[in-house]
Batch of 4 targets.
Target 1
Amino acid sequence: NEKYSIAIDGPAGAGKSTIAKEVAKRLCIEFVDTGAMYRALTYKILKLSIDPNDYLGIIEILTNTKIDFRNQSIYLDNVNVDKEIRENYVSQNVSYIASIKEVREKMVQLQQQMAKSKSIIMDGRDIGSVVLPNADYKFFVTASVKERALRRYNELVNSGETNISLSKIESDIIKRDNIDSNREIAPLKKVEDAYCIDTTDKTIEECVNMIVSIVLGR
Ligand code: C5P
């Protein structure tokens, strides 16, 4: 049983994390949601009322911040922030923070460390391109922007947010994808050796089965 790694990249709301979590369960390997790490840092910055454009302020926070996972939960300075990082105002600001070079360097280093000693499935934007360029399996998971907006909207409604509209969620997603795809460092893109899965008309189960069968069929 040798160690292997699976990279899952794609735009916001395509279902990456949901799928990756399930694949991890089926294959009995660890799942790392790298977006949660950028979200945790963003949450801290906003909570401290630091302007997302205050570069020096952000760098200082970055050096004094501990982010880690324990049993699939994310901890910010030893406090569980699973819930807080999913809030809409975090989503609206995270792409600015994630475009900063020093931020990415620190996160990528942590992510590579996590993948060093064990089999892992990691989801994000730059996993197949930068974090794990030698991953054994690479997937690019996407869906139509309408479908992705609808999924995020339902997620937010289910978590109790009331003051949101579907069209605002859609424009936020388009904006976030634009920033993520056009940033200078490690932009979101499909790498050549990634297998593309369009989840628009597929169930979670179908996508999970596709990935598991590709991995087990090697
Ligand atoms: O995956 P999720 O939507 O939670 O990611 C939140 C944000 O974190 C993304 O929009 C992107 O700006 C950033 N991110 C990134 N690189 C990753 C994962 C997430 O830049 N590997």
Target 2
Amino acid sequence: ATLTPSNEEPYVITTPLYYVNAPPHMGSAYSTIAADAIARFQRLLGKKVIFITGTDEHGEKIATAAMAQGSTPTDHCNLISQAYRTLWKDLDISYDKFIRTTDSKHEAIVKEFYSRVLASGDIYRADYEGLYCVSCEEYKDEKELLDNNCCPTHLKPCASRKEDNYFFALSKYQKSFEEILNKNPSFVQPSFRLNEVQSWIKSGLRDFSISRASVDWGIPVPNDKSQTIYVWFDALLGYISALSDDQEKPDLLNAVSSGWPATLHLIGKDILRFHAVYWPAMLMSAGLSLPKMVYGHGFLTKDGMKMGKSLGNTLEPNDLVSKFGSDAVRYFFLREVEFGNDGDYSEERFINIVNAHLANTIGNLLNRTLGLLKKNCQSTLVVDSVTAAEGNAFKDNVMRLVDKARSHYENLSLTSACEAVLEIGNVGNSYMDERAPWSLFKQGGTASEAAAKDLVIILETVRIIAIALSPATPSLSWRIYEQLGYSRDQFDETTWSDTKWGGLKGGQVMAQPKPVFARIENQTEVEDK
Ligand code: ME8
């Protein structure tokens, strides 16, 4: 067969490049899970997807963390960056590129970028005095600080600093920004975050310093070894350097030609200003195209405070995964935290939701149907699903919900997409209960034939659920497909068009019924009994 090269633009999605000051926590996992669900959905649509994640390894905050561990920055970064990759594997994260800002190709590209911005006349040298939050790696406006100059996110006092730095002329881009946002208000998502960005712009964009004389652990400023490049002016470039091949002489334009601009930067709302203001201006200055969209999701909170490495009030994703499995963790956070808004975690809620939805609504529906099929039809489908559903309005209901799920995924309404798929499970269970095929089988004759068809209808419904939920629960979806008698290759080849009614064929033999999602035993529930 000939390979036809595709001219189609790839769907390039990125997560933040996480700081390696501490191992990943549930907040970092949350962004990555959401990005993975979007990437998987786009692949189902047949898009060529480039899913980028990675680690942000330079700057004062990292150097200090390494020192506190009695380690060198390099050893520390290697260790923590690896912890991210291990967690992503355990969470079924299907990234295509993992960039480390200490990769030599990244460093080369940052230097080249800096030189382009310098050549465009947007870098100058000046003294700066201000209040600095190391956890944010950002100079703060006094207005935004709490008492004692405390950072509102990290609750730590900001230190007064004075430095002779290189500055980026952000203020030059004021007009361009107003135009961009007027022309393309969907650049910032969810739409309610646009106001925030607009008010920053209205209040006047101020130049910011892009180098540090006081920090060694960073990329040296080209032509001035006494300073290193500010960690944000370095890390954002990771979205481009990730696209670069591992060639001997990495170059910016080559990387850009391999997929830039990004379709979607998925980030938390804490770093919206860097992505929606600083980054586009940097790109304009270097003459590169802008990402199509920046989506700032909400925070996972604990007692109302942002869960984070700096505050130390985090939830251990490794513990959750080893206790409950990747599907449960992925599903819970996508389904329970209204995508875009903040959400609180509680173990009780976690157990209730995944038991009700994954173990009961989906797992149990499949399991009891396969049990009946085994008992009454030797685990074999009597007719194909199209024939089984002829003249049955139930099928139309399922197809309507599938379309609903699709449009929610397309609009990045991940929570609503999960809800729509679960609704398919609910209507499937109602259908099963109304039809009560177990009693029809007892009647024999045409009642029994109708019952056999009902089982096909339910199994087809569960098959459709498996595909439609696979962006959220890839492992569970595969286990369902396996139960329905498909091979791993067949599962891997599924696309969104397979959510169309009609996949199951007459004569298809199902596997031995086996629960696809083990109910989580709730300690307190057990003790209460
Ligand atoms: O900011 N709830 O890295 P970072 C939801 N290196 N998401 C959360 C969260 C929470 N409680 N806590 C963290 C950096 N996140 C920079 C990024 S990009 C070129 C450089 C997620 O390790 C959320 O996506 O502090 C947030 O924006 C990101 O982790 C911050 O990660």
Target 3
Amino acid sequence: EVTPEFTQNLPKAELHVHIEGTLEPELKLKLAKRNHVDIGQESIEDVRATYQYDDLASFLAVYYPAMNVLQHEQDFYDLAMDYLQRAAKNNVRHVEIFFDPQAHTSRGIAFETVINGLYRATVDARALNVDAQLIMCFLRDFSRDSARETLEEALNYKDKFIGVGLDSDEHNNPPMKFFHQFAKASAEGLHLTAHADIDQKDSIEHIRELLEVIGVERVDHGTNIVEDPDLVEFAAKNKIGFTSCPLSNSFVSPFMKGDEILELLSKDVLVSIHSDDPAYFGGYIGDNYYAFADKYNLTKEQVVTLAKNSFEASWISREQKDLYL
Ligand code: HPA
Ligand code: ZN
């Protein structure tokens, strides 16, 4: 029987976690005080009372304003270190962490402040036995020019992150809007992934663009690919990873998209379980595994396959993967 202890202790790779989505109410209040930022909330209950959302847009409307408390390099360090301690408790052995520089540069925080704070935490995480890397995401509701400028600046810190991703509001913001930035990032040796959010109207076309034109190695969410058997076959053959997040899925779908995850598993697609924005959606990676396993009565073998998939879909070397598997 799969227990919460089993899912927590299983060695895992976390491939879909937004560092800004790990901002717990406690740290938010502490940083607001430290930086004298008036957030209009004074208690944990006040903060939690703002957590009302039932789709991507209503979530993002709560998510971005919370970031105002992040001002200094130390704040980004503290945010990431808090998360990495929770990751260690969940036996996350390897993590590829998303960050959204434009959510900070657009409010006057230097790129350097953001990446240096986060990166320093990833170095210190080695003491926790967590191998941590960073993935820089473009905000898809920002302009192409903003993405180009962000990548140009990021390339000055190329040794501090391993790939690029794409997140934020997908509506009317298809992946092809960022074709050139993905091509440039790839030419620079960076890995590629992108969100295809499951509640978005053109999502299947966006997945097609990602796989057939842009050439991403992973799709974040995207389990609705099951609608298109040819694309599923392509994904299986090319070992494309799908990073699904049951607890955030449950905000847009009553069954946390478990039927899609199981269908992909049965077709040998590299689907795996992650936590998205754990401070906002009710749990870290062990909780996500457990919620899914419990609702669908998964066997231990199925849960272990999901964890193996997480290492397979990660961007560590073959030798390192074989050590974990
Ligand atoms: N989708 C899009 N943007 C996001 C998400 C997500 O799941 N989490 C944080 N930003
Ligand atoms: Zn996400």
Target 4
Amino acid sequence: MARSAILNVMVQAAMKAGRSLARDFGEVQNLQVSLKGPGDYVSQADKKAEEIIYAELRRARPDYSFLMEESGVIEGVDSQHRWLVDPLDGTTNFLHGIPIFAVSIALERQGQIVAGVIFNPAMDELYTAERGGGAFLNDRRLRVSGRIKLVDSVIGTGVPHIGRGHHGNYLVELRNVMGEVSGVRRMGAAALDLAYVAAGRLDGFWENGLSPWDIGAGIIMVREAGGFVTDFDGGQDVIESKSIVAGNEAIQRALVKTLKKPI
Ligand code: IPD
Ligand code: CA
Ligand code: CA
Ligand code: CA
């Protein structure tokens, strides 16, 4: 399916930033790194990639607003359109030489996500989705997995880092899920976790405490691949609630129940 003009702009921005990340990944030991909080790193590579994305998107749509991980909010004349930008999802992986990281860009129109792009330059995998137009990995249309039983499923998750709360809750969630599924994976990049759900590689995913830039593109990717995404209570306003449960219909529903089981 042909991409819209705006999706092409997002793809160009993500690929340009991705190439910059790939170059920096080869020289990772020379990068300047600073701490934003306990366990929460940012490097020159994150900042450079964000500058590239900002310049590309700004040039194409000068009026749109931005919410970016490293620069925060930049209000444009048009507040109905907002870019959600994570220039490097998986900074910890990146800084440890683990090639599981991605650029993630989403576009919101009047609070609804209408397009998303996730690009993993190390694997040359480009995920794209537009509302009503399906989700794609490079040129291949995506479909969530067909497994319907938790016992057969592989589920992704994100473990809160040292500076984040919810650890007690997280251990209960993990124990509940571990007891019912075939395997649990922690890849370290939420945008890719969601892209993998869309691609049917993971049957489901859950994480708490994520930000709009981590999940904006991933949410539309999963939904356009025929999957379901809610918060931990089954609600649709995932970005607001910061908690996310994704998967095919059967696994997503079962996961929401399993996560909540009392000790
Ligand atoms: C992080 C990754 C990670 C998730 C963290 C995020 P960053 O994003 O998505 O998988 O567990 O909560 O903050 O900081 O590498 O862009
Ligand atoms: Ca970060
Ligand atoms: Ca992120
Ligand atoms: Ca990031």
